[in-house]
């Protein structure tokens, strides 16, 4: 029977003894923004999620490491990689303990190739980690040792160039994500500062990246943050941070915008900025996106033939600044990481309608920033 290991990036301030985790539970590893204060996080923490009652139980500090604001699990489920979001950007590698999977052991770290690494992805073969460095707008590919999971010096690198109309956020390039497509011949990188989607060809034999295109966003000032593909690669869904919109693009053979839709209700006029977006992992009939300012999750239906979105729900996240969220692999729960209110909130998902309902299950954490899953 599966033991699901759920990973959330969060900052926690409590220390707990490890608990036995059975097959009815999901472990949450939480990466964080760290600090020196008594109530600040010290690294990556662990929780368990009861898959029946949705109760979250703290499991303590998994490993100490500075500002692990984004985490990623190796396809073999043996290793965890964390982006240490600092001026001297680094990626750290950790081993997942098979006997105590809520504990992580440091392996090594390498330069991320830039300042402020904020996003990681990996190819299915598990041979390379891809990183986007926000502060100076660079992307890189780091080889992974096939024997011990350690990281090697980056083999692929590119410097984004460009700016756009926002005088505060778009004076220069700010790479915010990089993600292989399903075929893994190409990677797309959303750059918030340049208002562009950079397209790369990846060569796994030597780990190099070749930029083949740079596509401007549908509207100046969009500020693209994250993107996702649907499973058949017909569509790319782009979260535009600065405009609080989603742009739906046709993907193959070229990126072409087919819809722009607001993530906010029509009567909301205060500042708000989108963060994470995901498709429902089972049906892909629903898309979810977080609004920071409106402090909500917006739910959309997805026309799987056309890619067109239609709004279904705006639900409060019961906190402030929902930096990230993720959906359990069975599609049953969505857990939100509210960075500014220091809490995690669990919602159930109606599989027929896609609508969210708060379960009443929460956990107090400090500055949660990212959510991921591990199945073992």
Account of the protein in words:
The strands form seven sheets. Strands 4-3-2-1-29 form a five-stranded mixed β-sheet, with no helix packed on it. A four-stranded antiparallel β-sheet has the order 5-6-7-8, with no helix packed on it. The protein is globular, with a radius of gyration of 19 Å. The chain is 0% helix and 52% strand. Strand 22 and strand 23 (296-302) form a beta hairpin. It has one domain: Methylamine Dehydrogenase, Chain H (7 Propeller), CATH 2.130.10. The chain is an all-beta fold and 376 residues long. The chain has no helices and 29 strands.
Task: Briefly characterize the structure.
The protein has 376 residues and is mainly beta. 0% of the residues lie in helices and 52% in strands.
SSE topology:
Elements: E1 4-9, E2 25-30, E3 43-50, E4 56-64, E5 68-73, E6 79-84, E7 90-96, E8 104-111, E9 117-122, E10 128-133, E11 138-143, E12 156-159, E13 175-180, E14 186-191, E15 196-203, E16 208-216, E17 224-229, E18 235-240, E19 245-250, E20 256-262, E21 273-279, E22 286-292, E23 296-302, E24 309-316, E25 322-327, E26 333-338, E27 343-349, E28 356-364, E29 370-375
Parallel strand pairs: 1-2
Antiparallel strand pairs: 1-29, 2-3, 3-4, 5-6, 6-7, 7-8, 9-10, 10-11, 11-12, 13-14, 14-15, 15-16, 17-18, 18-19, 19-20, 21-22, 22-23, 23-24, 25-26, 26-27, 27-28
């Amino acid at each position: 029977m599966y033991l699901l290991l759920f990973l959330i990036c969060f900052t926690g301030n409590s220390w707990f003894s490890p608990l036995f985790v059975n097959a009815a539970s999901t472990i949450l590893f939480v990466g964080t923004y760290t600090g020196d204060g008594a109530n600040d996080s010290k690294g990556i923490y662990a929780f368990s999620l009861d898959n029946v009652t949705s109760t979250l139980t703290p499991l303590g500090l998994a490993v100490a490491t500075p500002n692990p604001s984004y985490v990623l699990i190796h396809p073999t489920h043996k290793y965890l990689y964390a982006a240490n979001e600092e001026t001297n950007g680094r990626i750290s590698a950790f081993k997942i303990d098979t006997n105590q999977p809520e504990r992580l052991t440091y392996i090594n770290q390498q330069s991320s190739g830039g300042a402020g690494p904020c996003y990681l992805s990996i190819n299915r073969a598990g041979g390379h980690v891809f990183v986007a460095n926000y502060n100076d707008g660079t992307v890189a590919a780091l080889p992974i040792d096939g024997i011990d999971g350690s990281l090697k010096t980056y083999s692929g690198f590119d410097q984004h160039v460009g700016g756009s109309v926002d005088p505060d956020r778009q004076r220069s390039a700010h790479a915010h994500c990089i993600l292989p497509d399903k075929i893994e011949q190409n990677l797309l990188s959303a750059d918030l500062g340049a208002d562009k989607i950079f397209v790369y060809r990846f060569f796994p034999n030597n780990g190099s990246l070749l930029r083949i295109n740079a596509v401007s966003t549908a509207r100046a000032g969009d500020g693209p943050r994250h993107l996702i593909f649907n499973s058949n690669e017909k569509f790319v869904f782009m979260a535009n941070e600065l405009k609080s919109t989603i742009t739906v693009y046709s993907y193959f053979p070229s990126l072409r915008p087919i819809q722009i839709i607001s993530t906010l209700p029509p009567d909301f006029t205060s500042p708000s900025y989108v963060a994470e977006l995901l498709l429902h992992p089972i049906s892909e009939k629903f898309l979810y996106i977080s609004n920071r300012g409106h402090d909500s999750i917006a739910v959309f239906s997805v026309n799987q033939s056309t890619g067109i979105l239609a709004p279904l729900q705006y639900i409060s996240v019961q906190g402030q600044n929902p930096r990230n969220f993720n959906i359990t692999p069975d599609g049953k729960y969505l857990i939100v990481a509210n960075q500014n209110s220091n809490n995690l909130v669990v919602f159930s998902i109606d599989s027929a309608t896609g609508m969210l309902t708060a379960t009443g299950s929460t956990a107090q954490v400090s500055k949660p920033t990212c959510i991921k899953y591990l199945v073992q």
